## 1
Amino acid sequence: MLGLKLITDPRWVNIVESNIEEILTDHAWCEQKAASNAISLITQNSEKEELVTELMIIAREELEHLQMVHDLIKSKGLSLGRERKDHYVNELFKFMKKDGSRNDALCERLLFSAMIEARSCERFKVLSENIKDTELAKFYRDLMISEAGHYTTFLGFARKYADNVDVDKRWQEWIDFETSIIINYGKNETIHG
């Protein structure tokens, strides 16, 4: 799925179900960070009209997802906890190349963003197919579709703006790296954990 080499063990959902408040809090903050990432990309690339237009849509959708998760938290009588560190995302960030042209840096940031969206999409799929709470199963099914669209948007723009980068080759490097770190995750009640 989405080119990912390692899928999440469905038993991860058992861990999630042991602490729904934690997964929902973590998920809410993931949506906030995704919106912030899109806004940051807009700020750094304001001259790229098509990119800005699409990223505004993504930022708005991510904020809507944050609102949806927050509403779900409240409806379940839970509370939104403090922001959590996302060690998975931090490891991906370290893999991002920091040299090259401005367009090379943009391409790399777009691939980084695509990778996060791809894994989030895959995790939402696992949740939608395995969680016992039918409301949450439908919720994650709907979000899975949205995340897949974000993944393809980021990957498409990486291809569009690549000057000196073989995007397909670099994407394969991202997939290989992600495979090497994701084996350490899937043990916590967090979206990427």
## 2
Amino acid sequence: MTADDVQAHAAALARRALALPELAGARTVAAYVSVGSEPGTTALLDALRARGVRVLLPALLPDNDLAWGVYRGPESLKPARHGGGRMTLLEPAGERLGPDAVTEADAVLLPGLSVDARGMRLGRGGGSYDRVLARLERARVRPALVVLLYDGEVVERVPREPHDRPVDAVVTPSGVRRFGGPDSGA
């Protein structure tokens, strides 16, 4: 995709996500800053913040768990190198709220490589978001779980491990697909 394509997809993704009832009524949303070829999230983060939503962004800990910080605009992000310097992420500057801060979220926006017809998400393999989902389950809270992807990343099947949890919806530039039927594992 060209840079213009990426920007157009990010704008379409933000419009679709902002129209979700789960985000329309949210007071706190846990999200992430896209990296590399991931669908762009900056427009969505800024739009949520402009609505008065408290946006939490992750900071990767040495054990691959995630602490959270409050997003205060693009200028509040700082580059952080991880994996021996192999990976640079944009993380929130300022106070770290700890891993349990995600349990305050009304919705959690999850990155992924793909989502299948059952609502199962394939991540990058680091386990960070598996820990987030397990933390939410242990806390007995049920925020809306939404994955942001490109259209071609919604597939028929992804591998499923016993610890994997289905998501509620996937948002792509062209639409929203919801899960939760009998075959979803939800």
## 3
Amino acid sequence: MSTPFRTGDHHVHSTFSDDAVSTPAENLAAAQAAGLRELRMVDHVRVSTTYVPEFLAAVRALPTVDGLTVLTGVEAKILDASGAVDAPPDVLAALGTPHGPDRVLLADHQVPGPDGPWSPRSTRQRIEAGLDPADVLEMLVTATIRAMHAVGRAQLAHPFSVLPKIGLTEDAVPDQLLDALAAAAVGTGTPVEVNEKWHCPGPRVAERLRAAGVLLVASTDAHRADDVGVYDWVRG
């Protein structure tokens, strides 16, 4: 990837996420020290989450750093095959407005099944019981496409990160599904992360998306300030 690609970090968590340890101010200082030009501050939400206004207020109260654009987002999993998203409806309705986050980061922490999210373990059990892996891949991609269209302002967080957890790899995703995903991303203006933490998507998928006109953005998925803007796998 080119150097400009790595001058942004589009997925950074703070203490508003229960598994992160750095404050928004600490992440901002780390981004400045790393020479980043763009920083997207993101934290985990569910339908029941209530902290989003506080999170947005904290980010907006940060001092301006010359040459650094600070963006916001919330990360939510895709719930089921319909493309439903595990985020508060009022937060989704406010995406891109002065009172809401800029984007929702759609995450495949679990497989979006027809009856709700399938854990990696239950998905493996279904495959072992005879479920065709091709059907799982089609369900995952189709749900992701539906979620992109439903929310309007998304970013794909670590796409296909769930595959190794269910015993599959990106090599199993057919070109036809990748092209459908790319068309939806282009049509909805959805950026797609190349994610340092989860090492995805890999070169084949990233290049096919890029060639189709998808905007790829670098991200660390940092949960501590020391990791903000630090790329090793992405650099390679």
